[in-house]
Design goal:
With 238 residues, this protein is α/β, with parallel strands linked by helices.
Length: 238
């Protein structure tokens, strides 16, 4: 088993932070780079995908994050398995060729049985490029157990703090898997106390990966929370 796969499947491992870092390279990256190894995964998203041309700033930022021990994944949307498979594969290839990423984050993932073959093909394609690559998929909600076979980590909640407290639902089968297979992302957790409550709940809910922010829709991932908030989050997760 490769090192990347093992970080997703080790039982009883400490909870860690994966950052949906849709932030242009610059000083904000230092916030989470300096929080490794609690922060272990980051995502680059130059243009809702790799974009049309290499950006040297992203090349530099990926290398820098990797020197901190952070695995950097490229963002590719699948539009709930409605995007042409060959086009998605080309974007995956581009991320590997341009930025030498450690894996791929497949956003807008489906969660129904009929779409499983689509994601199985993508997982196979990713591993062919790099046998140690990490595959994360994002249905953003509960899914069927079959999706555990097509990704190393599944993002099974993406939503607001209020929704996380009140309407989150966890299928019974989740408890059969190591916490490192699941990631929860929570935005609009306005205060440090809200963030701490979110982290507490995520640990109870078998999420080995978490990210909490005070930022709001439509893009809560375009900037990091304040340094004080972030420092408290790293401490709470650690």
């Amino acid at each position: 088993m490769g090192a990347l796969a093992s970080i997703a499947s080790t039982a009883n491992a400490a909870q860690r932070i994966a950052v949906p870092s849709y932030i242009y390279p610059g000083p904000e990256w230092a916030l989470f780079e300096n929080s490794a190894p609690t922060v272990a995964v980051a995502i680059i998203n130059p243009a809702s995908g790799p974009g049309d041309a290499i950006d040297p700033n992203y090349q530099r930022q990926v290398k820098e994050a990797q020197t901190h021990g952070i695995k950097v994944l490229g963002y590719v949307t699948t539009s709930y398995a409605n995007r042409d498979l060959a086009r998605v594969e080309r974007e995956i290839d581009t991320f590997e060729a341009w930025y030498h990423v450690d894996g791929i984050f497949l956003d807008e993932a489906a969660n129904t049985p009929d779409k499983l073959p689509y994601y199985a093909k993508l997982k196979t394609h990713i591993v062919k490029l790099n046998k140690h690559a990490l595959t994360i998929i994002n249905p953003g909600t509960e899914t069927i157990e079959g999706y555990m076979a097509v990704a190393d980590i599944v993002l099974t909640f993406e939503g607001s703090y209020e929704d996380y407290k009140k309407i989150y639902h966890q299928p019974d089968w989740v408890s059969k898997y190591p916490a490192g297979k699941f990631w929860h992302v929570v935005y609009k957790a306005a205060t440090v106390d809200d963030m701490k409550e979110t982290v507490r709940l995520s640990k109870e809910r078998n999420a080995g990966w978490v990210y909490v922010t005070s930022e709001l829709m439509p893009n809560p991932y375009g900037k990091m929370p304040t340094e004080a908030y972030w420092s408290a989050e790293v401490t709470a997760v650690r």
